[in-house]
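To the team - zinc ion complex, inputs and output below.
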Amino acid sequence: MSSVASCPGPPAAPRAPEPAPVVEPTPVAVDPPPAPLPVPTGAPSPVSSPRATAATIAAAEAALLGKYGEPSRARIERGVAQVASLWRPEDGDLVAFVTAQFVDAPAALDALFARFEAQVEQVDGLVLELQRAMRWNADVDTGPMLGVDDLFASFDPGAHVVSDLFATKVAFVALLNFPLTTLADRLRDATSYTRRQWAEARLTGRFDTRIPGDLAAAASAAEANADAYIAGYNLWMHHVLGEDGGRRFPSGKRLISHWNLRDELKANYADPDGLAKQRTIVKVMERIVTQTIPAAVIDNPRLDWNPFTNAVVETPAAELEADLPPVRTTSADREPDTRFAQVLSHLAAARAADEFAPTAPSYLARAFDEAELPEERVRTLIVSILSSPNVAGAAKEIEARLGRPLGPQDLWYEFGGGDVPEAELDAATRKRYPTAKAFAADLPRILTNLGFPKAQAKTLATHIAVDPSRGAGHAMEARRRGDRPHLRTRVEAGGMDYKGYNIAVHELGHNVEQYFSLYEVDHTLLAGVPNTAFTEALAFLFQARDLTLLGRPAPRGEAERLRVLDHFWNTWEIAGSALVEIDVWHWLYEHPTATSAELREATVRIARATWDQYYAPVLGGQGDTALLGIYSHTISSPLYLFNYVLGHVIAFQIEEHLAGKNAKTFAAEFARMARFGAVLPDTWMINATGAPVGSDALLAATTRALAKP
Ligand SMILES: [Zn+2]
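Output:
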């Protein structure tokens, strides 16, 4: 029972973290990483580390064999082992339980499966509805918020559902009667699974882990601490001095690491003094990763800091931010590896939980299990991008555009997009959509223009609720037939501006996917898509057609070429950080007693080696560049970064498949892909495009883009 979906991580550079279920897309999406599960040290198999004793297991098997005989032996042994691996003494008499709940006859098993499918849909759907109701006043613009609204919003009625289903033994009935699969099983058998077998795998997959409450609480606490650490990690840029000791940034500019620092660096390309600013930001990032940053300068507007010399002095009174008292300390003591202590807290929580996740008994295993792609596949895909000949081609073009040799800061170069005359578009969308209601009323036309047949467009429009949003906008799925996905869009007093419209069209893509993947999927246990990268890819297909829907020509030619190169460069950029993180977590499992200083040394070493191998040849900085360790995700939600790489390549695969198709075919293909449901990513992609998940489409598009400057 995952949380309320919305518009999580799309294939783009991750931005600052968002409040819980809401996410907001822009052409570059955002992404609330999923709550990671914890990891262990040993690797007990489901059978070798049972919670029940061998004697109890033998007695349970004997009881069932006596009742159903040899023909059922395989199912009996499997079911008992699956139950025993998560059974606890307080669950009571295991033999009595399996004797009462084992189902043998095929017709009875069908009835049991149908019951589970129906009940799980109700649990998912109604929990989500309650959550949506509790968040209503925080998410939807209902006027001034009351102090209590944020507290209601933080109430998560789904938090204990899995644990309650174990306590009531409902979960054990599923584990006793249907196969629990590992990722390796699913990958091996993907081509032979029936739809019913996929649905059974999704049913038991909900119950593959049973983390004791105290361990789950410890993991949540580690996450909350890391989030708070990151949320407070700001730099006051007026007080960060340049290489020449001068001030380069205006007062009042407070940037959170690393998102804002990265975005500021990107924005500096348009600034005549930009290169000096960018080098200053790179130096700040290096100091953060290597933990040579003075602790006193973090989120402190009273100290001036030169990241090149590492000197710290009190800010002169004339340069103080308004209304700030002067501070006494000018300590230059470095941050004491606090950054890496956060990661060690995640590791401790993860290792404690490992033995309670029999099908994926390590944090690494669970991260790739979540994405349903094995680590070797992900690694190969990452390396195919890092080592692509397109890197040199793209670097050459950037160098020509900048008129100077590239440096480490150009890791975040932006190719820029098309020139959309935004003011003119603002006027058009404000006039067309003075309210959220007006946008809702236009849904049938929008959907028909996208190519959906009239009747289908009407069905879709009546099944999507549109609400005025407090934030930038998001999509909230439904999980029970009879309920509706919600589209949240922000409409200012003067009407919806173009940015708001662009986001609303993106969200509509999510909602349409959410309708097809719930209402038209054959098994509701398969509702949804394999992971967030897929729904983002589908939402971007809608978003890319937003101008056409306004009756304007779609961007093509040079704008399209730059869009492709920008995607490629972004993917290449994040691929290195993702690879570093994977290697760091292997090192952690090999050194479970490491100190935070040792983890810092290992991280810096791995980041520099990865830089030297893949980045230094085009960006320089050989030997001492640790920038690939800067992502805040690695501190707050470890091992999520590689999902962004997957997001980029998945988006390109789907785009390439639909390129040049007329509207009718586009809509029909969209529906066909979306109603296939939450199977393995490769299985989904083969159904959608004929090929498994891979980087070929992105690399081929990039090669074409580089061929015709
Ligand atoms: Zn989205």
